Amino acid sequence: MALTFSPADDLSLALAAAADADLISMARFQAADLHTDTKVDSTPVTDADRAVEDRVRAVIRAARPRDQIVGEERGHSAGSESTREWVIDPIDGTAGFSRGLPIWATLIALTIDGVPQVGVVSAPALGQRWWAASGRGAWTRQHGVTRPIRVSGIDSLDQAVISYNSLPGWLEAGAHDQLMSLVQSVWRARAIGDFWSYMLVAEGLLEVAGEFDLQPYDIAALWPIVTEAGGRFSALDGSQDLGAGSALATNQLLHDDVLAIMRGHS
Length: 266
Hints:
The chain has about 270 residues and is α+β, with helices and mostly antiparallel strands. It folds into 2 domains: about 140 residues, Fructose-1,6-Bisphosphatase, subunit A, domain 1 (Fructose-1,6-Bisphosphatase, Chain A, domain 1); about 110 residues, D-Maltodextrin-Binding Protein, domain 2 (3-Layer(aba) Sandwich), CATH 3.40.190. It has 9 helices and 15 strands.
């Protein structure tokens, strides 16, 4: 008989893995002997990325030996349970990590039938962690205080704050005109990098975050946190595909407005 796990069970496992990851990553953060390589896709990878992913994989494999696992640095590890897949980005924001900037995090997600159900984002250099599981709401812990989080109630783009992350990413995607239209439609536009802009949407501090040039491991952990906080998550083309290569997170109230601009019908 196959074992079954509740969302709470899986979330507890992800949080335990994130706690171990934080110990490893913080020990290497700003270390004088941090070793950085360049991967074939020209992105950086450090010894901390590999060590964190190895530890997270070990924690998950020990508790869920049947589950699939995929990570940015070690690829895919097969399991006999085909519907459940853990998705790991050991250090989201490696470029900043390698330069000593604090905006980076370990992302751990569980997808079931391709749909993100559990997400943990742990940013120890910022002193904050966010998490969610299907039907259990979204939460953060900062300075020793745990609290629920909720997206904002702003329902007009001209009162919204957007983060577009990387201008080159939009240009390379041929979306310059759409970005300019978005920037001109909102109250404030910012380029807050990596995971953080999506967590700020979940906390109600931004209304829109989006970018191109993404992989599933960049997105999977963010998705349930935003949606359990009352927001909406999709690709920039409106699809619900983790592999679409882009992300759009909003407070839900503005999602269709942003998609209309992306489709050229502003």
